[in-house]
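If I may wish for something, please sit down with the protein I am sending here and say whether tokens and residues agree:
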Amino acid sequence: MKKYRMNRLFSKQGKCLDVAIDHGFFNEKAFLGSIENMEKAIQTIVAAQPDAIQLTVGQAEILQNMPGKGKPGLVLRTDVANCYNPEMPEYLFSHIIEDAVEQAVVLDAACVVVNLLMLPNQPELTHQCIENICVLKPMCDRYGMPLMVEPLVMRPNAEKGGYMVDGDIDKILPLVRQACELGADIIKADPCDDVSEYHRVIEIAGRPVLPRGGGKAPESEILQRTYDLIQQGAQGIVYGRNIIQHENPPAMTKALMAILHDGADVEKALLILQRQP
């Protein structure tokens, strides 16, 4: 049954663009730019026709209530965390929603996603994440629900708020492998500092890897990074703010889809971006 839902996420060529609009879950004002009106944000992305949209349990119905057969698949976020704030809270948590997989089934989700966070000197947070995955894994198997795990190696909040990625591949590799050993069907991992080494992440995962977009970056940088990651063997991407906070989200979506599904290079993707109204 997992294969049935995986087929809704991935193209015949095995590629997937998942647009993350689940940032409101994390109680951080900076994440809310361009998604203050969720109905408008979701409608905008649906019109651009990515493969999937990543949403929370409180907002998923906006997508699933839309009529028609051509909607992107739903990737349901299952955990709430507080590690993205500019200053480190006294108490860190990663809390899984109640009956997460059953709620995903009711919402007709194609996948659920959960974090595996590793912050400096915060082993308790990683432990909570492992517990969350261990709860989800047997339920996902029971209901035929693909499990996407997001192994994220983060730098100290003091360096740049709570969203600073640590691109050290020697830290990324073991965390990705731990996510796989815990039962992930799909990996959502950060790019490493040297993208030419990302094939090592693909190899150690042994299952579809969708790199994360991370913080906002210039469009040429995003397109080049995406192209390079696909050349390294990534089977797609999970981007949020680099799409939804772009001045033309549908055009950025189409440019990224062209790289993923049509084999476009960066020059062609930029032309698509520039030609869109």
Observations:
- Residues 81 and 93 are 6 Å apart (CA to CA).
- The mean pLDDT is 93.
- The radius of gyration is 17 Å.
- Residues 123-143 form the longest helix (21 residues).
